[in-house]
């Protein structure tokens, strides 16, 4: 799909990770992109910037019409409510929700037809995302909802891939939870944008989609791929389960899988994880200050796990 996407798109956010990538992506495809944010960071080239908080839009969107509202920054039903109350006009509405809406007690892989509810691992984050979904579908029944697993790629501002990248660049041993067999599921931010394009073009009848790679990857393989992206080989040390995993590792002690059959029917191919991590490392190596909140994993390891 290399042709021009001549659409008017409103993106909430536009300056960090997913929303920034999406703004650049759709500008590059020929779309007229407008972003809503508070102007605290640099804007993507060629976007129209509306400088305001989404909770206080006033009349800034009244009377304006977009082919698509791409809502990346809604975390609660009130966030959705505020945007719809602005009287903005649109043809399509796509909300980036989360796989955190599935209770951990559901059978896996999680499918879109399962009942959703509170997940004890994700707490209020997942509960609020679910309420946002429910409010949106009540008000806009033809909206699309996407539920990704762990998103990754350039502009990532959480301390996830950056952690093993840091360790690799410092030639550090990497401490993995237990035997490193816990599986993770990822989805590249470029694939997310490609799938959004497909929804806009095909308008499938299904309204809720799990999105993600088909293949799971173990923790130890993910770490090895991160080190490989940095041109290094990982030396792994297993950490006993009695040590809280989140003290020294960047994912919780929680394995889950999404059924992405609906996505595959429309977009069967995704970016190989090794390729995506290599691209992310090359970007991160030039943007070491990009992480929003760098957690003290290395300090904990040095004080509690590393041999003296």
Please count the helical segments: 9
Radius of gyration: 20 Å
SSE ordering? EHEEEHEHEEHEEEHEEHEHHH
Helicity, in percent? 25-40%
Terminal CA distance: 55 Å
Please summarize the sheet with the most strands. Answer: 7 strands, parallel
The overall strand count is 13
What percentage of amino acids are in beta strands? 15-25%
The chain-level structural class is: alpha/beta
List segments where confidence is low: pLDDT < 50 over at least 5 consecutive residues: none
Oligomeric form: single chain
Query: Tell me, what's the shape?
Result: globular
Mean of the pLDDT scores?
96
List the strand order in the largest sheet.
3-2-1-4-5-6-11
Features:
308 residues; alpha/beta; seven-stranded parallel beta sheet; two-stranded parallel sheet; 9 helices; 31% helix; 18% strand; globular
């Amino acid at each position: 799909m290399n042709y021009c996407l001549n659409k008017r798109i409103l993106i909430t956010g536009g300056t960090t990770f997913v929303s920034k990538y999406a703004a650049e992506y759709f500008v590059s495809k020929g779309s007229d992109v407008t972003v809503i944010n508070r102007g605290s960071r640099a804007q993507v080239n060629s976007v129209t910037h509306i400088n305001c908080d989404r909770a206080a839009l006033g009349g800034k969107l009244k009377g304006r019409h977009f082919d698509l509202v791409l809502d990346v920054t809604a975390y609660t039903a009130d966030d959705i409510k505020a945007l719809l109350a602005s009287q903005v006009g649109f043809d399509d509405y796509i909300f980036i929700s989360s796989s955190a809406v599935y209770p951990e007690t559901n059978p896996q892989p999680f499918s879109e037809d399962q009942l959703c509810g509170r997940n004890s691992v994700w707490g209020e984050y997942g509960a609020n995302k679910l309420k946002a979904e429910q409010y949106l579908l009540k008000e806009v029944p033809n909206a699309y909802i996407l539920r990704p697993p762990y998103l990754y790629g350039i502009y990532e501002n959480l301390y996830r891939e950056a952690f093993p990248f840091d360790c690799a660049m410092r030639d550090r041993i990497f401490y993995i939870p237990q035997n490193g067999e816990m599986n993770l599921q990822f989805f590249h931010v470029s694939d997310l944008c490609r799938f959004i394009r497909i929804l806009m073009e095909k308008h499938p009848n299904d309204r809720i989609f799990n999105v993600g790679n088909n293949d799971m990857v173990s923790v130890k393989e993910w770490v090895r791929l991160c080190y490989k992206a940095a041109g290094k080989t990982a030396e792994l040390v297993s950490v006993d389960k009695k040590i809280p995993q989140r003290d020294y590792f960047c994912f919780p002690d929680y394995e889950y899988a999404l059924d992405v059959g609906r996505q595959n029917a429309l977009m069967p191919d995704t970016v190989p994880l090794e390729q995506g991590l290599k691209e992310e490392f090359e970007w991160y190596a030039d943007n070491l200050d990009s992480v929003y909140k760098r957690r003290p994993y290395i300090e904990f390891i040095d004080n509690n796990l590393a041999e003296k």
